[in-house]
Fold:
Amino acid sequence: MNRVFVDMDGVTVDFEAYKTASGLTADEIKRKPGAYFDMPPIAGAIEAVRSVIGMGYEVWMATKPPTAIPYAYSDKASWIFHHLPELKRRLIITHDKGLLGDSGDYLCDDRPHKANCANFPGTLLAFVDGFHWPQALDILREARKCRST
Structure:
């Protein structure tokens, strides 16, 4: 079974909307207790993740926490427990996403230049330059279709 590793901020969680609404800088947000839990999901992201699960992929959330801010770890986990409880046992918090997966897996991430995403051994679906869930879902559906024929 192929796996899809899904980033949180910028892929499922709307960090930018929270930043705009709060008036805080990115650094202030990272240090604010409860901020990661309070962030809204990106429109359509929850449904997209569930769609990937429905396609038969093994889905894991894979997020990079801000360094040395312990409550950010628990806030990110709490967000998953609240918004995607089906993934409560499929949460990876890491500074090195290049250690995840193998050649048949996928990584959905909006910051491919961070967290060693460039060394992810599978297919990196970079959520940049207008690429987001609609395009990722098309690629994952096509890959699933090709594997089943």
